[in-house]
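Example (one chain per record):
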Amino acid sequence: MSGDTTAIQGGRRISAHAVCTAIRDDIVSGTFAPGSRLTEELLARRYGVSRVPVREALRTLESEGFVTTRRHAGACVAQPSERDAADLLDIRALLEPLGAARAAQRRTEAHLKVLRGLVRLGQERAQRGQFSEARSLGDWFHETLAQASSSPSLAGLLVQLRRKTAWVYAVDPARQIVPPPAPGGAGRPDPRARAVESWAEHGALVDAVARGDADRARALATAHTERALSEFRLRRPVPVRTSKHSVNTASGRN
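Predicted structure:
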């Protein structure tokens, strides 16, 4: 068995990596609630593959901390404690500024081109109130910024931390409050204003990275991370949905 076992589906070869991505996406989205069982047979049926790539995918997810194996129960979605959840935020707050500083020192022109394009698109989506697309672009932005550090170990940690944070936490709209427009005015939850502000922060960070200013990049990343993480709240368990989900439609990125 290779490190990327494949299954045959409709004459196409489906890799264990694709199955792993599909299961991880469903865990992060809350389709599989913490503590729920993950049986090979049901997963194979859900994604339309054999049990072999499912088995390998579960091993990978266990190594990443998304899945745990219980005696007499088999594979289950992990149940992070409140301390585990708090640790995720603390670690991200430490590592993301480091990644930004490294990016300022090691980025390539190709990285800058992608980052600037993402900032432009993100600003457009935020202005239009297209929050789902803006969030997806934000994930892409931070993944590219991590890759720009030219440190595979650090980039891998940062991507995994963002996945786990998305799994354990949700953004609380009630915390996305911007200052009132006039003295004495009442602050109101304004997701659009916060999204626009967030992409402005992304743009300033890219400018610092482009200049090679590691100290400025670190400071901006620290402020952005602290602000973003302050808007998180712990997720509540979501009931497991049982509709079939073909692995062919699974997102290739997270």
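Caption: Residues 47 and 243 are 10 Å apart (CA to CA).
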